[in-house]
Amino acid sequence: MYALLIATMMGCSLIGSFGKGTVVIPSERSSKWENAKCNDGTPFAMTMSKAKKKSEVWVVKVGGGYFCDDKTEKCSDRKKMLTTGSGKKDGDKSAMVQMGLHSRDPSINPEFHDANHVVMQYCSSDFWLGEKTKRQPTTGSSKGWFFSGRKNFDAGFGTLVEEMGMTDGKAKVLVVGHSAGGMGVVSNVPLIKKHLKKSIGKGNVKMIVDGIWVPRQSTLKGSPVWNKWGDLHKTCTKKAEKKGKDALSCFFGEEWYPLVEKVGIPILVQQSSLDPVARKVYGVKSSKDKEAWQALCKTSFAGVDWLFTGGRSYHTATFDSEFTQGDKGKTLPEVVTRFWKGKKSERVFYGYN
Q1: In sequence order, what are the residues at sequence separation of 6 or more whose Cβ sits closer than 8 angstroms to the Cβ of residue 161?
Q2: 290 pLDDT higher than 80
Q3: In this predicted structure, what is the pLDDT of residue 17?
């Protein structure tokens, strides 16, 4: 049922211009990041493109690509690029897609075209949640796989701050969770605080979650086991267990959003109310079901302060050709710019009628 989701939840587009980037492999730079690994044990990597002129502004993409739980989605069906390393060495040159928030074209990306750009590779199949350091049984390999997403997240930001020029206190950082990376951002806020405490204190760290919002469901029957390899959100889990609820409910936006909002890092939610991936997962097929789903989504956004939501079918937007969508004066790039500059919160509904 879920096999077709892999390509859709890659969190990237194959169409667009490419630029040159540099491969950064934390485990090759310091032994303290030795547990930052992809599923098959190869090293976790990032690709970085520094601004031509020195800049303290950074746009960090936390990559996406769905996940596997060996129940609703077999790990043996994962595409190799989502389970293994880049095959390159630290310092090697590598192509980097330049679209959306990573475009170098000021007419497309007016606020961040001249920023430092980073892509954190998603190769752990665990929503960036896993933190065990030993191989776990899986259909992906008879040897088992590492599910080390949280270790990778820690190593990524740790290396950027300690070695790549993202100086805490000076750096201004936009962390963007793209598709599955959105849950990675939600779940790893404590690690962002760990590495960027001073910048957060100055109001210079902000987050976007793109294509991860799911409205609260009346039942969890048939739902993927989102937290198979790690805790979705520790505080949410404790609250759910205290109420006798399944911790899987923490995946729903209305459950995690209030907790993340309290952290003190501004967050913008970008989400299609007809996200094809979410509809596929929850079996939304007929026109009537689509209308009900869209209405449910719209209601579920009630408590979100910064929101950009399209009323047509698409998955992600911040690093895709969808980035320029919106009505004049309220396009996604314009909303993101005002969000970044600390303007009054906005809730933009685009293309609903």
Answers
A1: 167, 168, 171, 195, 196
A2: yes
A3: 76
Mean pLDDT of 12-30: 80
Q: Which of 129, 179, 149, 181 lies closest to 281 in space, CA to CA?
A: 179
Q: Say yes or no to pLDDT of 16 above 90.
A: no
Two structure tokens written together for 189: 């806020």
Task: State the number of CA atoms in the 13 A half-sphere of 295 facing the CB.
Answer: 6
Span 76-89, pLDDT tens digits: 999 999 999 999 99
DSSP state of 336: H
Domains recognised in the chain with CATH numbers: 7-269 (3.40.50)
pLDDT reading at 316 higher than 80: yes
For range 338-342, the mean pLDDT: 98
Give SS3 for 144. strand
Helix (H, G, I), strand (E, B) or coil at 298: helix
Question: Exposed e or buried b for every residue in 262-294, given b needs 16+ CB within 10 A?
Answer: eeebbbbbbbbbbbbbbbbbbebeeeeeeeebb
How many CA atoms are closer than 13 Å to the CA of 88, on its beta-carbon side? 18
Query: Do the bridges between strand 93-98 and strand 57-62 make them parallel or antiparallel, or are there none, so unpaired?
Result: unpaired
What pTM, to 2 d.p., does this model score?
Answer: 0.94
| CA neighbor of 128 nearest in space, from 4, 200, 281, 231 | 231
Distance CA 161, CA 167 (A): 6
